[in-house]
Records
---
Amino acid sequence: MSKNIRAIGILLLAMFLALFGSSTYIQVFQAPQLAADGRNTRVLLASYETQRGPILIDGTPIVQSEADGTQYKYQRVYENGALYAPITGYYSANQGATGLESAMNAELSGRSDSQFFTSLQAMFTGSSPAGAAVEVTIDPDAQQAAWDALGDMQGAVIAIDPETGAILAMVSKPTYDPNSLAMHDDQEVIDAYNELLNDPSNPLFNRAIAGNLNPPGSVFKIVVAAAALEAGIVEPDTELDNPTEWELPGSSSVIYNPSHGAKCGSGEKTNLKTALELSCNIPFAQLAVELGDEKIREMAESFGFNDSFEIPMESTPSQYPTDDLDDAQTALTGFGQFNVRATPLQMAMVSAAISNGGELMNPTVVDSVLTPNLDEIQGPQVSSYGTPISQETADKLTDMMQGSVSEGAATNAAIAGIDVAGKTGTAQNGEGEAYSLWFTGFAESNGQQVAVAVVLEDGGGMGQSGTGNGLAASIGAAVIKAVLGV
């Protein structure tokens, strides 16, 4: 009898241990995975118990949660949704979250470490739980100006305060309305998401910081000029060869300046200042070979190439090739071709560093985080990425870029009474493909600085007929004017 009882006891103990082990495994090891599973409606509904915090511009909500009387309790509402979509992203019941809605989810949902005592206080006082508010750095006038200037063209615009890294405008087109993904009708949201996902123009891409990156073309000449000046191999007035065409080293391919078959200026010789102002390809290809790909890569990376930035949304790294290049390939990178790719964020950062005397600040779109009572939890996070160039080099580049706007290849960026520094680019994408059109530059007025970058895909709707000066430069000027209030 005792033997049978002992056997039953062992069996019960084994069953208990198995149950204990499986429940422990589920609660400890599988819990995060189960909580993140989109099919876990209990977790999803629990996330809507808290009134999600608003996203603010100058204290005014551009995103907020409103009571909707459903099982979800709150509906996310986006004011001017399409205008601010690259910044806010969306928060969806079945398609996840993007933009600030994802990057600042802990704060907006009230679950960040810095909100522990606020949440504890709400529990004891019986007040309704609520997430923190996120105040962004966006200048609404600049955002609207960028939106209006971009019009129906496919591309992106970004503006940065060079002194702080604060992002003042960020527009990407085509875009979408986040409200269509925030509804609580699952099938309606899925249909809207699939329509956006299958749209060949990729409206879900934030082209300002990510997406399919474009070759920067001639705006990359700023980086090459910076490398050449820092290396001491050339000054703005140093004489350079000035042929009408140049055969790439070790290749039968021939390159030309933008005006096919023309010299860089009228003389037998040219110089760096003229080459940058007129955006000549041959001098920069030759300079690139003299520098070598390693020095160009070092300079590009000191500006942020081959690195990603959390603004706090994560950017796609701009690219300068990390493989060893031959001289022909290096020559092509000298004017932003071959395998060089860039985001508008990256090119705006190059201009911002020059404007800021050589120091590059980390970019951010978050100004502060506030409790539901609008007490500050986190203030502006200003930090330096590094100092890629000296003040002397920054001054030389500024002078050459101002010459490009006043009398060179970027004249459509000119603003009466303002010294605008700028550089245009018209980048090739392949045989018969439309160009990518660029402008980047900066200006200052009454102590306010701004650096901008513009990219237009599909040649701005003009295929291979559009130019950076013809289309992109005027967009950059419109945004600069809006920021400076001129």
---
Amino acid sequence: MERSKTIQQGLKENRNQFILLVIANAFVGAMVGLERTVMPDYAAERFHLQSTSVLLTFIAAFGFTKAVFNLITGYLHQHTTRKNVLLIGWLAALPVPFLLMYATEWWMVIAANILLGVNQGLAWSSTVIMKVDLVGAKNRGLAMGINEFAGYIAVGSAGYLASTIAHQYGAGFYPFVPAIVFSVVGLLISWLFIRDTTHFISAEQQSGTQTYFSFLWKEVSYKHFNMGTVTVNGFINNLNDGVIWGLLPVWLLMNEYTLVQAGALTAIYPAVWGISQLFAGKLGDAYCKKQLITIGMLMQAAGLLLMVISLTHISVMIAMVLLGLGTGLVYPNFLTVIAENLLPAQRSKGLSMYRFWRDMGYVLGALGAGWLADLLNIQTVFIIVALLTAFGGMLAQIRMCCTFKLFWKSHSCIEANAY
């Protein structure tokens, strides 16, 4: 009887473990947040880098490694516990602050971001999958919203903290000192207090009604109407996030914003992204996800275009809010669409495949944006990415299906996993 209590799914039934996973994920987000506002100054101050394409190699290294380890996570979960994978992710994070603080060559920054990608791929993926294990189907969207809320609020807060420290003490060393605390505390929480959730799968598997997919990679990557479309949009979403991460601070500094002003404005985007996911995830539990995704992608496109049209303080603030709201609408619902279309036994692999493609967007975004910014200009890059993001939103509206409408007519699926 006691054993059956331990495998009862639900947010309320597992709130203590869920809260611990949320806290752990916040520390994962804080690790990467420290880099989001200060890297242009850091690269210029320590390495005298001027080329945008060279500067953005750190994002490409991070994105590629994170994508690969997102994929590996699903396979590791077949052979060891979720908690073990989470701990490996935190161990990879421990050298990161020291590499950044004491880097004497640019390759050391790349190495730090490779390890950061391992941390993000293993630790963030594991916290996502463990929360899905805990809550069951009823509150899956809310759970994903809370997870992404915590992670991206931490990203924005850490980014603002880093820019404040850099303004006071310089960008070359001190902004990365908090990462020592983040990595150690994240590791200790995961090791001492978080319990494994692998045993929840067998209980849920008995009541699963989804289809078993023989060629899961193909279904998640492109074939399945809902999952494949979400994967394409996830790729585009992170492509534009990689562009914003790499080029927005440069763009603002070029246009006479101070480092602190640029840091504060840049932090609005992940902060709004994080907060809005609390509501977006719950909306996805109640309403049509395809329309939430369409609206979210179009809002992001509008935000990117606004930065090209006007660079006044208020315009940039509105653009950051549009980008944050748009990304917040889509991010938890991407994850939920994948999770709800897969049997529990295939969910970890399927989510990992989606997260692989999604984070490969960082690689193309960073390398492509850097090359185009050097070849053309940053305004042109923003316009190209805005058009691509709008295309993703329209693809979701045309190709995805749901069983009811939200704001406009929506064709229905015969089954939850129809394609």
---
Amino acid sequence: MSRSFSDVLEDYLREPSAAGRQEVQQWILRHPRHDPHLVLPDAGEHSAEDLVRALSEQLPAALLSPRVHTELARALERIGDFAGAERHRRIARLALAGLRASGTGSEQDPISVLRVQDEYDLLEIAGRSARAQQFSRTQDSAFDVVTLDDGTVVWFELLWERRSWR
């Protein structure tokens, strides 16, 4: 009997692991509303209530998006839901830790992402910015190859393109 998405997610939140993260990622990728090119509403243009509603509508397909969870935490805090805000801050931290743990960013050990925005969230948190981005495909997967402001190259594996997960 396969486990429900709620069970998989709760297990991962309770005890994060690489295997648990991959199981959650596979569920997210199979969600009919998963969008690797997700564009989020501008937080400055909406009331906290409207932002919570708009971002919540993206879930569960946008789970493990550092940006979604960070923005949800900020909006929930503005409306006084401190427990909900803390839960989303924790998920944002877990999402960032999962990105960092997924690879070094080298060609041989790329960082695995569920969305293009995840690449930019990780770079922003590290205080880095992209100068150029190229797409690279292999027989088994596809990658964004990002050149940073200092010339460093970071490889990101686009999980929605991974053959073994489709």
---
Amino acid sequence: MLWPAAAKNVLKIGPDREVVSVYPYRSACPKAVWGELVESAKKEIFFGGYTNYFVFLDQPAFHRTLQEKISQGVRVRFLLGDPDSAVTRQREQIEDVALSVSTRIRIAQENLAKVGAREGLEVRYSADEDAVNHVGLSVFRFDDDALVCTHLARLVGHDSPMMHLRKRDEQGMFDRFAEHAEELWDRGRPAS
């Protein structure tokens, strides 16, 4: 009787076995985790945050890292919010912080320009009708790992909770969030 209870408390079973870690704040996730996930990706890197700017500030010479991953055949995608959209303006009013949402998107765009136009790098804006869903949930994929940040009320991304997921099951937590991100991507439009 005691052993199954003890084992169950130590070993993850069921849907929660895809949860590698949880962080009360995105900013509490060590920068090394981001770097290791990018480095270990062999097929795909997908940044599905509304602004994605922070990774260029947190990871040294990240544009060069992306160039190297692309040269290794890794597909790199960035899904951004449109800096000129109504949802972006509304989110700026909600957050009411000096570093505005549109500025954060433009920081990402400026750094993506350093990567350069090349096959293997794709950048899109979320569709207008999807922007409200995109601004509230960020999904960052690295092959079979994902970092998922659910944005709370008036908080900026770095103050919102985040989960690290690893694909273990079909239609598990990882797949649910990955499918959400893919739907936003498919409906998005090329960034200008």
